[in-house]
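Input (Imidazolonepropionase-like amidohydrolase):
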Amino acid sequence: MNPVLSKMLFACGLGLSIPALADTWLIRDARVFDGVTMHARRSVLVKDDKIADADFHGGAPAGAHIVDGAGRTLLPGLIDAHVHAYRHLELPLMFGVTTQIDMFTGVATMQQISARMRGNDNRDQADMYSAGTLATVPGGHGTEYGMAIPTLTRPDEAEAFVDARIAEGSYFIKIVMEPGRPGHATPTLDLATVKALVDAAHLRGKLAVVHVSNLADARAALEAGADGLVHLFNGERLSDAELAGFVKLVRQKRAFVIPTMSVLESIAGMREDDVLGDAGLAALLTREQAAPLKVTYGKQANAALMAAPNQVVAALNKAGAPLLAGTDAGNSGTQYGISVLHEMASLVQAGLTPRQALAAATSAPARAFKLADRGRIAKGYKADLLLVEGDAGSDIGALHHIVEVWKDGDAVSPLRQVQLEKVAQELAPRTQAPLTLPAGGRISQFSADKLASPFGIGWMPSTDQFAGGKSIVELKVEEAGVDGQRALAVTAKVQPGFAYPWAGLAFMPGTQMMQPADLRGAKVLRFRVKGDGQRYGVGILSSGLQIPVSQSFETSGEWKEVVLPFDRFKGIDFGAVTMIAFNAGPKLGEYQFQIADVRLVNE
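Output:
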């Protein structure tokens, strides 16, 4: 389960900065969870970017910032043990997540963040330890995003593959065992190649973790020597024998497990309403950032699919197997940082105590991934800290009430304030009237010499080339059309070269490129289309968003009308629309369709 990997979005996480020089902080008389033990009352001294004293006594040093910890819990900065970090790199800090373990992202993104960390210049975003490019077969899981990645098919290719990943900067090796689902088979690595990859990683001193989605593959990966499983699996409860055998194998192999309850719940059609419905947390999410939390992979809620993961988590925890909190953020139903708070609550619901859940997001992932400088509150450790109201050791919900976050000894509150103001400004009520739409709402006025429109810049080709892609498109006005309206023929070739390739046409409603227009006067998008029988997408973009929100439509050899209510485009601010696009992709190949009579109507 991996998100669309987008190199162009890397810069989104680098837009804010905080002072490079840290201060001295004394968090006084707090309840302190040190990563293992909860201490009823302690004071912690931070100097520069390190914890100077985890049990400080005496007077405050001159010039120290003093923070009252009474009635509060201080714990290490949280670690999300399973993400795909390709955007919103500053967002985890808003929710106390100071480190992310990345399971597949662009190599350039990985290298740039690693360079910042080496230079001690990563104070304004979460640290990241990444697998870089995952190990999969041609056409296998991980290759579906339109961006060419190296693959392998045989055991004798494993050592060269691992060497190449290490040379790129991968911190560990991620291996895919993913056969797909009934009716939708996916090519996957054979067991011999999986074992060869694990062996090659171990020979070079690297961890090897395995993506699985069923019990059989989970057992096979453990038998092959995997250090950890980076998912559990949806489904009905296991039999007593299956459960006992699996737990025994995990313990025998000394493996860790990252259940990723958040994304498994998304597959089961279950939303993270506990965090999305918390006004204090939601105030830190822009519309774009909140949008993924409002959609799930499963179209309907089916809690029965969580029977197996809940059962297995409870049994593994009872047996003392290492469980790590990881969200698979970057996927539908999840979001960086905030989903960790939900993940920990889900682990508690599955049987962990709140203290065990705290360890699953601090010391446990640090230990599993050999991160020697974090995950604990101890002398000499990184000053990545989270202070919350209440007793997080007895109520995991206390993590919703963040007082302060420190990253490398710097308070994150200035960044959080900027984010709060950004979201508040975005949500502020508008006083201006919406744009007046033409009679009938028609925005396509195609003629032989012009792709005209009643307002805005109008119509133009749209491809991924501006982001380094290689897709191409040709637009041609046809003499014939439908209902007296000329049609625009769109001939596209979607080619590899970008993470999410596309080609088509776009309508720009503003008077300048990507300038927003207020389209609240319309409620529905209507258009006529015919074509080659393939599936296409309508993507709408509004101010503040980097990725359009899309709805699909199919074509046939006959003209038909497509009707798309605006309320299907969750997360779009229709008071600030910057683009409406009609695109082919991301599936590679050649496409052809005709479009006519495009209208924005209030009905």
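The chain has 15 helices and 29 strands.
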